[in-house]
Amino acid sequence: MYWLTTSWVPAQVAAQATHFVTGVVRDRSTNSPVVAALVQVTPGLRRAFTDGTGAFKISGLPAGRYQLDVRGTGYQPQLIAITLGEAPIATIDVQLEQAPIALPRVTVTAPDEIAELRAGPLPVTVVDVQQIAGRSSDLNEVLNRVAGVRVRRTGGLGSAAILSVRGLEGKRIEVFVDGDPLKSPDGNFGINDIPTQLIERIEVYRGIVPARFGGEGLGGAVNVVLREEPVPYVDAAGSLQSYDILQGTVIGKHFWGAGRFSLAAAVIGASAQNDYRMESPFEPGLRIERDHDAYVSLLGGMGFTARHAYFDKIQLETFAFGTRKEVQGVQRNIQHAEQHNAIWGGALRVEKSGFLVPGLALEYSITAPMARSRMVDTSAVRYEFDGSNYPSPGLRGEVGQYPRLSNDRRWELRQRFNLEWRVTAQQSLNFHINARYSKTHPEDTLANRYAGRNVSAYPGRLFTVQSSLTHEATLLGGRLVNLAGVKYNWFSSQGRSSPLYTLVQEGEPPAFSPSVGATGFSDAARLLLAGSWYLKASAERAFRSPDPTELFGDGSLIAPAPELLPERSWNASLGLLYDRPRAQGGRAQVEANAFLLRVSDYITLAGTGFTRGHVNTGQVRIAGVDLDARLDVSPALFLYGNGTWQDLRDATSTLPGTSVPNPTHGLRIPNAPYLFGSAGLEWRPRFAAARNLKVFLETGYTHSYFYAFQVSQHQARAIPSSFMQDVGVEQGFLDNRITLSTEIHNLSDSRVINVLNNPLPGRTFRVKLRYTQMRETT
Amino acid sequence: MRTMPLCVLALATIGAGCDDPAGSNNDITARDLVIVTNVISATSGAGFVSTISGLASANADNQRAHEIAPYPYVFVRNGVVMVTENGTTDLIKKFVPGADGHLVPAGQLALGAGAQPGAVFWASDTKAYVALVGLGRIAVINPQTMTLTRTIDISGPRFAIGDNNPDPGQLLLHGGKLYVALQQIMSGPVAHDTADVLVIDAAADTAERVIRDLRSAHAGGEANTQKMFVDENGDIYVVCIVSYGFGGSKPNGILRIRSGASTFDPTYFLDLKAMSTAAGEYTDFINMAAYAGNGILYATANVPARMSNPPDFVNDYSFKALRIDLYNRTVSNIPLPLSNGYSAAVGLYQGKVLFGMSTRGGVGIFSYDPATGAVSNAPVVTTQGFPSAVRALNP
Predict the structure, then answer these.
(1) What is the pLDDT of residue A106?
(2) Which residues contact A583 (CB under 8 A, 6 or more apart)?
(3) Do A391 and B5 touch (CB under 8 A)?
């Protein structure tokens, strides 16, 4: 969980590189490093900031002549001519003269790494999170505006969110943070818990998952790239929203030892009542006030970084995250049940360029998170929605048949090892291996006592190894970029079944030790056709291994399935990208992709009544197109829009294990959105009276879809169409060190449901105040 | 496979004031069979209730069916179809045949948060009982107006074992008494080792006493099948399913309450294990059942030897069709293909016994002719989805 201090340049950017420029910027008079100096290469837009030691690195430059434009606050700019020839790396040390007048605060416009990612071989949308760090929108809302992506939520802040990319959702979409799988031991820490101030950008890979990530994504992945500030700073923000939602963030970083050492710390907290009113989906005419949906979270962490010892960078980190979430009843009025979760741990990370041989870069990390989850459901009474109460039918507990007072503990050990070797100026290799060992110890003696048997999941162990090898090549003078990768994932697990299913009534139930391995591969190519037109094509053989819950069940009512096979998919994507800088600044980008996925051995929860278990069953075929357009109309006006049509069909011709025709063969897969889009604008007035003002409008539409297979004229349950509008204003003060934003979410107060029976909040007012010493991105 | 297929009460109209609706729906006699099929996806599922034209069509789709929760409980009386949704909602839904014979909605009633209505039993056109499984109560409703008349609270230690909820399952009105099979669930499918039937005075709608027997356990089971019924002698038979085979020390079987008696008949216990073993293959619990009269019960039951361990929800076909002679205490196999746990329904229709089965060779309605012994090895009617109920609209 390297969320505090890390940075990582994606290998994909390097894939298009032919040369590097590295160096150190120092103060000519004191020889001390100049921190946060801007180094820009012209022609072109590539740039970098110096880190705490004054070092910089710019990659992806074709051979040729350039000028380095070096600027630092309080220094006179300096232009340096350089020529990049056969040597892949040029080292340039720069000495800046102090200037009598400080320069204005450095501003970055349209980071070109993002533009290059978009112009890479993979269908990817890159969200520049720094652009919205001043807003109060959360990341789920941000992702929901990306082509091909939907985030389905069950309620307000702290509620469950299901991420869907190109029709595949949940476990089939892996989320990474700086390339590491975001799998908190208890599954409680999610992407929405990372404050936007810490994020550089979010990369959403649609259809094809880069092999270098390894991971278990079947048809998409989200990679959160964290921001690394090379300068000391303090950033503090607080927001207030409707439904008594309060959020606050304080982040800071301090350097010493001529920039060789730094210490970062962060405290992030949230509190929400989520007390909106909704129509009961179960009882017509009943209005429910969600009065037991409070959520509190607190995240804290510290990170120490040392640079330029043997390793370029050594990081030590510690973190803790805790939540308390009330259980909101929808079918039943729940007033006491709560879920408590806590995660804590530490991490060590090292980086070394020129490891053993020139051109070889090493990254290694080891992380040890621990987690504890507690479900507290012991009430002796239950409540009607009119407030009256009656004794709990199960003697205690509001949620299920018996009370819960669980104490589930998990701990993990994760290691990540990455080697990147630049073989030539046009080729590089990346080897990645990620190993994870986790141990689970569930416990709920109260539930066991009331239930009369062990209803807790039995202790389990899981060992996974994910490895990948990626070859990156730039050919045809830079016009063709190709990424070829192969990955192999293996896992071994140990656990026990439930005695309920194994007919063993005494002693421990039988143990299972399934072990599964799977190989995947992919290739993606991008060809510069002419001018600003790019052709993208990619194909992938992907897989997802079953997880322990699927293999071992829940120890109670979900049976084990130790024979489960990995899910597999064939993915293909073909896209056309137009990407051109505009004369007046900014860019015009249009990307259209057609995609095809075929998933087999789909893992589903089968069975009826009390007895269920996971099975490999069926095939799903997904075909679709998405269109994504972005245009800087002028320096003051930015427009974007995207639309996605994805057709998910049941491709299972016969019922599993039989020759009986499948009655839903060819039908649209239900409970999955198939037509949706987003559009928005941002206006930054250029007149003096409105300096540092941003006005934005975001809209999103999702077409209605059925909850179950559409086989009847009287299909009763559907997720209704929704059209959402968010409007807001952000005003910067003191050279944008202070920003104040106000926002209205769901302006028209539309009734929005994207998970059956779970209405979402209506119109929401938000205010956010932020003070920052971070570099500004506009 | 320890699946618990959800089934239906095949003949809910034993005794209990069945007014003859003859002549009222002459134009719809063609659609005289109610079926429920279940169509399941990876992330959702639905049940569909509809009427079909008996066994006339080789295929039955759901085009005119009404979507309800998967594996609902269905109750039919005189052309009126009541549906409760297996605990997923707190509603009871009413359907009647429209002019073209297809069902149309005719009202619904919300029975309170967490009520989880299960079994329905008509006392008359204007009075019906509904078991509120989630609350441990019995609702008295007017099925014509779909309004709540009163509730009978049977929760608490007087009738419940181990907790406050005796888990009311099957209902049967006979001799002025409402018999309520109490499942006495401990957790999940596991019940306490006792067979309990609560007796309620149907005139006053007040609970009187529990009839208890310790020779078996888990009286009646879920609401969706006819596992408590009365024969021509006025004797009440109670099928005990002992936690659907999940543990429990008591044998599966059938108990009897003699007409007018206040205890179980100590001389009668039909031990299903012994009888089915004698018939060639041991079956543990009866899944669904339909009483055909003259002491003959048709049922589907689980064969443990055909289950995987742990269960294989794709390849386990462990439910077989049985003919149970209650008087002679014998079991015989009906040579139908085995079904998996997604179906295994039983119903009576025009002198035949219909089985809703999901087999390796087909999914739909299979038939058995008691007169000739003829069986269909393939579905007579292929259904779009797993059939969990097959019922005559006007039995």
Answers:
(1) 37
(2) none
(3) no
